[in-house]
Amino acid sequence: LFVSLIRAPAHAMFVIDVESANLLPGDVGLLDVLISSDVVPPGNLVALANFELRITPALGTTSTLELINPQNNAYNLDPNYVFFRNSTGPLRLVSSVLQPNDTLTGGDATADTLDVNVTSSRLLARLEIDHNFPVGTDPGSTVGHSFTIDLLPSANTSFWDSTLTPCSFTSNSGTVYVVAEPSTLLGGLCAAAGLLIRCCRGGFPAKA
Questions:
Q1: Is residue 207 predicted with pLDDT exceeding 60?
Q2: pTM (2 decimals)?
């Protein structure tokens, strides 16, 4: 896979969407990357897909979001996978470029070398992600940290039909947010509700 050829101008367009998600501090999760056509119907044809994705922390973020290495490729058994039951088998490599385990290079193709017509949003990849922070860090201090996952317009990102004609594409980034434990949020809401009830019954406490 990872084909990079110089051919005629692109004849079709795909939209690649990286989903967003919330994670608890130090938690692991899954993030789907979806492919759809810009014209539905009739859809666009694809037989080979290569991609390079990278995680970038927001400015001031001291924790890290990493790709689990190695990744589990069992998502090709999902009926919504774009090459479901017609896959050569996903090939994916995790590497560290700007942060630990922040980049995923991968690809797959149809086993019969024929096209798949993408007429709806289909699964292109599923990322396994892991939120980490230095030993001794209060997990609560990482709440509010965020990370962007982008499809890179690099030589490792390309989409082709069965005639090896390249297909143009656009992409939308996803964001992973580190959020508080539900019990923490509930406790805060209960405290606020209790204060409101007391105020409604007897007014605000008098100042000393």
A1: no
A2: 0.83
